[in-house]
Design brief:
The protein is α+β, with helices and mostly antiparallel strands. It is built from 27 helices and 36 strands. It binds one RNA strand through helix 7, strand 11, strand 15, helix 11 and strand 30.
Length: 832
RNA sequence: GCGGGUGUGGCGGAAUCGGCAGACGCGCUAGACUUAGGAUCUAGUGUCAUUGACGUGGGAGUUCAAGUCUCUCCACCCGCACCA
């Protein structure tokens, strides 16, 4: 009987599908377990990264079922997005057709892996029944003033011809097409994720099941800092000639270092600052300033925000007054101050800030030392800024105070005198969600000449994406040209009105899909709170690290928002997060341009899904990158054939009913028994630690032990132990290689369903041995090994050790200084 | 610059509380079976050396004992980065 994986895999995939083995129900008295892999974008073909992702999820899902959990393991498609539209333009097809064809193809590919998905819950975000509720979420955010429109300088990708969220700009380039992103002053839709900045940050602490890496990345991204906003009065402002009077003639700076306020020697303001023209108006430097401001606008984002860029600026001709000491200091427009962080104005302290130091050197601005290192009271800043902690000087009543303490004291002083206010700032910006593209969920907003900007009414959802539109390369969004879509009636006044033509970022679709899986057929509401509260949160989420910020942050935000509205009990979507490594070939990521892509279909065709799964799980720890290796896949295949062969061997003996099996328990039986239970113990631990690469090696060891047993006793096997070994090999191998195990289970004569068979507990007694091997060392160097009875007392061991030939020889009558015995482990004799 | 991580044979990777470094697999070597072998099985496989020594990026330290703990240096990877 040969192992024909093609027949076996096809057979079992059909059985699971037809008998709906993995359909999840809420009605169960087992504890629930929701396991989810990040759903794919239907790009056309499955790649090895997908296979790794889904295999990991599947192994865990199948293991959890065996351990008595009511498992939800769904999958769907993140189906909106730009590639579909670009493909449509290129191939003169419709994004919808392109997307759904791809889904069909990839679904077929995924099924070949043999994953345990509940396909009845499959969702496609581009379907009306899904995006209807994406729009519903928009409406809820709008109702709660968390979706709003504003005109601002936004990231614009000229190649994708749309705006991008900050999170989608990587190193100044478009996350998707890698083109350089520019800035445009546009009116756009935003979600007020900043309202949740504090929660998003502080709740990270609760996420024990997330790696520090991801938590740090999110924490960095949110970028909380505590400081003080301080008002600097503008001296001699030319209010008469000013085009628009400032309500108060102040410039407000933000600083985290109020302890350095006596060292301020200038004020730096961003060129984009809204008050800039009021400051320069009528001053003798005005034209020079205007040129500088224009120049700064033209500078690309990458250059503007790079710390390498030379610090440049121009004196405005205006002065400000430092509130704490009434000093008159110049105001500069500078290229290094960012307009959209803090207040867009910075107090320049050259002595204690590297950037200010560089700027001051360039413009001959005085450098005033106000902090000195403890060990050097005469310290003066000369070559570079002193940013470390120290003691204050030149700071009046705050002199001789440690600066860490002075931060508090001066902040308090400034607040008391009403010169400023404590302030917490975040780097996190609001989430820009509108896109000037067609293939996305339309933003359900109506522009009515009478009622203004109003939300579409809930009962009119979905705002359908029209199918009959034209795509062309250089024009704006097809929706903007589609009269049938644009023209509508206002649901409030009944008058003619126009629709918003922008669509939503696809990250909006994916920020709530895990909730939809809980209740994917519901046509009334996005999900019933009962069902969502039953399944949520996701017990184990698995996906690539590339979503560490984008998708995971957005999902956390939407979850918190829906919780605040009372639709959910949980305020975090993903309890445990596993970020799997990439699949590499020849050290680099598989890509068409390098030509190192391994096609999953071909691998499955050649070795079968089970072998592919085994290799993927075995070759590297889950979180690490995995180097693809063809011969290792073959090794996995070889291993499965070995399993197959030995079980067939014993099956044949069993069926011949010769007197091959006995009830005898000898040393070999015990050894095999020990191997079985040791494997159960270790693999159970492996699952607890997500260290599944070692699990495979332990099953291999157990399989080797069975081979050894077979060879050592050669007939007259103990049936019970052989049966126990085979049963456990199949149970433990099953999550990794489900097809072959189900088939073997049947061949071995089992009538139960392996899928729902209980994972065994190990027998502590079976692992214990009568004899242990201990190591004999002299001064930490191994001299010999010794088998002794387990749990012998120290004196007995000492005797045995000292009488050991090799030890005797090595000791050579030297003086023994110390004798160390660690029970059942090691003897170390210390000599001079 | 800041934050996080990694460093172990020819390769992927194992090593509970500090207690036999290199499990398991790939590759390689030899042998068996075979018309054949890119199938299968068996044995071997860290380095050097005829004893034994040396070995987990380098150096130091703690300890009877260090891949594991401490300090320090180096290399590489990832994330953030003019965030005041």
């Amino acid at each position: 009987m040969q192992y024909y994986f093609k027949i076996v895999e096809k057979k079992w995939q059909k059985i699971w599908e037809n008998s709906k083995t993995f359909k999840a129900h809420e009605k169960s008295n087992k504890p629930k377990y929701y396991i989810l892999e990040m759903f794919p974008y239907p790009s056309g073909n499955l790649h090895m990264g997908h296979v790794r992702n889904y295999t990991i999820g599947d192994v865990l899902a199948r293991y959890k079922i065996m351990n008595g959990y009511n498992v939800l393991h769904p999958i769907g498609w993140d189906a909106f997005g730009l590639p579909a539209e670009n493909a449509a333009i290129k191939n003169e097809t419709h994004p919808q057709k392109w997307t759904f064809d791809n889904i069909k193809n990839m679904k077929k590919q995924i099924k070949k892996i043999g994953t345990s998905y509940d396909w009845s819950r499959e969702i496609i975000t581009a379907e009306e029944k899904y995006y209807k509720f994406t729009q519903w979420i928009f409406l809820k955010l709008f109702e709660n003033n968390l979706a709003y429109q504003k005109k601002s300088f936004v990231n614009w990708c000229p190649s994708c011809r749309t705006v991008l969220a900050n999170e989608q700009v990587v190193c100044g380039k478009c996350e998707r097409c890698k083109n350089i992103v520019g800035k445009k002053n546009l009116k756009q839709w935003f979600f007020k994720i900043t309202n949740y900045a504090e929660n998003l940050l502080s709740d990270l602490k609760k996420l024990d099941g997330w790696s520090d890496k991801v938590k740090n990345m999110q924490s960095n991204w949110i970028g909380r800092s505590t400081g003080v906003e301080i008002n600097f009065k503008i001296d001699e402002i030319n209010t008469l000639n000013s085009p628009k009077l400032m309500s108060e003639n102040f410039l407000t700076v933000y600083t985290t270092r109020p302890d350095t306020i006596f060292g301020v020697t200038y004020i730096a303001i961003a060129p984009e600052h809204p008050d800039i023209f009021k400051i320069i108006h009528g001053k003798q430097n005005e034209s020079e300033c205007r040129i500088f401001i224009e120049k700064a606008k033209l500078q690309s984002e990458i250059i503007r925000t790079s710390s390498e860029t030379e610090k440049d600026g121009v004196f405005t001709g205006s002065y400000a007054i430092n509130p704490i000491n009434e000093e008159k200091i110049p105001i500069y427009i500078t290229n290094y101050v960012l307009c959209d962080y803090g207040t867009g104005v910075v107090m320049g302290v050259p002595a204690h800030d590297t950037r200010d130091f560089e700027f001051a050197k360039n413009y001959n601005i005085p450098i005033k030392t106000v902090i000195y290192p403890k060990e050097d009271p005469h310290f003066e800043v000369s070559n570079c800024a002193f940013e470390a902690n120290g003691i204050l000087k030149n700071s009046r009543e705050f002199n001789e105070i440690e600066n860490t303490e002075a931060i508090e004291k001066i902040a308090h002083y400034l607040e008391n005198k009403k010169f400023g206010k404590r302030k917490i700032n975040y780097k996190l910006r609001d989430w820009l969600i509108s896109r000037q593209r067609y293939w996305g969920a339309p933003i359900p907003i109506i522009y009515c000449p009478k009622c203004g900007i109003i939300a579409e009414s809930e009962k009119n959802l979905p705002v359908k994406l029209p199918e009959n539109v034209k795509f062309s390369k250089n024009k704006k969004s097809p929706l903007a040209d589609c009269d049938e879509f644009i023209n509508t009636t206002c649901h409030k006044c009944g008058k003619n009105a126009k629709r918003e033509v922008d669509t939503m970022d696809t990250f909006v679709c994916s920020s709530w899909y895990f909730l939809r899986f809980c209740d994917s057929d519901n046509i009334e509401v996005p999900f019933s709170p009962n069902k969502a509260n039953y399944w949520m949160n996701v017990d184990q989420y698995i996906g690539g690290i590339e979503h560490a910020i984008l998708h995971l942050l957005y999902s956390r935000f939407i979850t918190k928002f829906l919780k605040d509205l009372g639709y959910l009990k949980e305020n975090e979507p993903f309890k445990n997060l596993l970020t799997q490594g990439m699949v590499l070939k020849n050290g680099s990521k598989m890509s068409k341009s390098i030509g190192n892509v391994i096609n999953p279909d071909e691998i499955i065709e050649k070795y079968g899904a089970d072998s592919a799964r085994i290799f993927i799980m075995f070759a590297a720890p889950l979180e690490k990158d995995l180097e693809w290796n063809d011969s290792s896949v073959e090794g996995a295949y070889r291993f499965l054939k070995r399993v197959w062969k030995i079980i067939i061997y014993f099956k044949n003996i069993k069926e011949k009913k010769e007197k091959a099996f006995s009830e005898k328990t000898d040393e070999n039986t015990k050894t095999l028994k020990r191997a079985i239970h040791y494997a159960i113990k270790k693999i159970t631990e492996d699952f607890k630690n997500s260290s599944l690469n070692t699990s495979i090696s332990r099953i291999m060891e157990l399989c080797n032990a069975l081979y050894k047993y077979k060879e050592t006793i050669d007939y007259n096997y103990n049936f019970n132990i052989v049966n126990e070994a085979i049963e456990n090999i199949l149970i433990m191998l099953y999550p990794f290689a489900p097809h072959i195990c189900c088939e073997m289970w049947l061949i071995w004569g089992k009538e139960t369903n392996l899928v729902f068979t209980k994972w065994n507990k190990f027998d502590k007694k079976a692992i214990e041995t009568d004899e242990v091997q201990i190591v004999l060392q002299i001064n930490g160097k191994i001299k010999d090994k010794l088998f002794i009875k387990t749990n012998l007392n120290g004196d007995e061991v000492k005797n045995m050790a000292l009488n050991n030939q090799k030890i005797k020889k090595a000791l050579n009558e030297k003086e023994i200084v110390n004798f160390i015995y660690i029970k059942n482990k090691i003897v170390n004799i210390v000599i001079k």
